[in-house]
User: Fold Transporter from Streptomyces triticiradicis.
Amino acid sequence: MSACVPTRAADPTRPAQVHQPHSPPPTPPRRFRVAGADLSASIAVFLIALPLSLGIALATGAPLQAGLVAAAAGGLVVGRLGGSPLQVSGPAAGLTLVTAELIQRYGWRATCAITVFAGIAQLGLGCLRVARAALAVSPAIVHGMLAGIGVTIAVAQLHIVLGGTPQSSVLDNLVALPDQVARTHPAALSMSVLTLALLFAWPRLPGRAGQVLRKVPAALIAVAGATLAASVAGLKLPRVELPSWSSHALAGLPEGPVLGVVAAVLTVTLVCSVQSLLGAVAVDKLVSGRPELQGRVGRSRLDRELLGQGAANVVSGALGGLPVAGVAVRSSANVQAGAVSRNSTILHGVFVVIAALLMVPILELIPLASLAALVMAVGIQMVSLLHIRTVTRHREVLVYAVTTLGVVFLGVLEGVALGVSVAVGVALHRLGRTRITHEEREGVHHVHVRGQLTFLAVPRLSRALHLVPRGADAVVRLDGSFMDHAAYESLQDWQSTHVAQGGTVDLGGRSGTRIAEPENSGHCRCRPWTPWRNHQCDAAAEPGSPPSDAPSDGSDGQEEKESGETRPNGHQLARGISAFQRNTAPLVRDELARLAREGQRPSQLFLTCADSRLVTSMITSSGPGDLFVVRNVGNLVPPPGEESGDDSVAAAIEYAVDVLKVRSITVCGHSGCGAMQALLASEPGGALTPLKRWLRHGRPSLDRMAADDRPWARIAGRAPADAVEQLCLSNVVQQLEHLRAHESVARALREGALELQGMYFHVGEAQAYLLADVDGTELFDHVGAFDHAGVAEEPRHPA
Assistant:
């Protein structure tokens, strides 16, 4: 393969750049450019973060400046290093209870050190790439934990709202509440009521004027309104006190039992990590609802997000700040305000630093009762009715309730441990709860299995199956989603024996679809995935007879034997069709009949290479009618007007977009592409063969790879293996640009009815990568990075 890559003509005004052939060109220095949308979004987030940071610091009993330090660290550090571009981090209400307990037990400086250790633990977890394991925690446990923390916050802040001081536990606060009500401070209560009134009324302002005013965050209006009212009325109330930064307390080593400190570090690590990762998933869902961000904002990279959160906690704790985690309120505000990159998060951190240094006199006018009312409202909102309905629908309300009560009355770590125990118990109960019934109707014996079929149910399954007499007709229905190996073997052994004794078995799933059918020993017993492996599966040879695929005259077979090779012959196609008719056709006949009646309605045009190793239905887990597939050499999309008589691809694009109304188009390249190798090895001149005429549509991809004024397309986590792989990646990006030039595609994109997606499939690794634009670089990331275990999420694309 030639190592020559076409380059541009030398420009005497540009300095010479020397790099090895096929190595990435030097990356030009990037300038920090801020889009107008990011600037406006950062201001909106800052106006929300400022009062909330002070309020959360107040609720924990920490110095109020600690909330500002955490907000700045979350904005600057996580904003730059985190893996979720639009998630905003800072002091979170979900950490309030944990931090308050640590301050009471170890003191403030020791709590800062625990925050640093928790950040180091997060860095270690991020390096071990275990971020998705944290998402395996049941959502019912997470929502229950947040609800318990919300109840604790609300009850504690109610005392400050009434003008008093909260106690150390929920029970003590509840016991002291009647006495606090009797000693209510009217001025504090009035400011709290005003804050709550503004907080809930502001988002509901009617009319066009209200629509404009609602752009100002309600939290800012509520606190600013109460502050202004208290100042004008001259009320004597406890207010924010921000001591001089010169006396700000920094981290100090904790004193106490080592096991207690380790438990505290693990608790902060767990709560920060889980809340941040779930927040990243939620932000991805918000981004997917904004079509204009598709292709501009990549999906969250959870391991990188964990690293960013760990670094922020190290910085925040070392500088005397609260623990940092992803915050749902600020993140959703960031997305809704129109942010398009991580610059909005970084700028919000800059604004927090400026406010902490220059706005101290203004901040010290804020009544503590107003901040308490704001945080109390946040705590109440953490008990989400939507989450309660969701866990009830999934029959996990017991897990939710136990976790909530455990957090309220025992603590966060104890409550989560109780929730995990109950969740495991519920899962085991569901796994072992299987109903097996047998009945005879009109001479047919029906065995119905409801629930998961595991080894625990094998004895009952065996008893029910042996109630079926020899030679009888039997129908076995499996109404469950799981069957382990022991149950499978038991069922198959009985089925084979019953059929051998002259009976019949109709074995099917919940919808009545047949699952398996016993075959005689002469049939192929290969696994369902083996037919595409180009294997040779022959029927069992009868004694004294040649194999089923041996030629009748013996000539070809002799040649194969002498050459030492086993080659597919003319009977292979017939055998494959026969296997389809026997094994697969009964399973897909109903679906194909429906498609024949209704016509095709694919949701995606999938344009890929003609390479025989790319099985589109396999790598996209799709079936008949799902994809409209166009294949050609090199997955090329000729630009309009350059087809030179070959309108095949353009016709397919027009038909898919205008007639079939597909919602997305995917251009899929692959490793080891022969067309890309031919492009790299091509020399000017020579006979213009059909292949060369076709490959000229790939020359813009060569030019793209050779350009010095743009970064190369990359694969996340590693450099391209060689020039062929780099050209394959560049070709996908270039063909997407060709797609946009087609009139039907451009029109659909303008109308928001279509999205374009790039994909790269590494054949040897069986690994798919999706294209995303990350900070101006075309990055192909693992498809696994776009999924999040433990969280129900619609796929980004039908494929």
About this structure: Residues 1-29, 516-568, 785-799 have pLDDT under 50 and may be disordered.
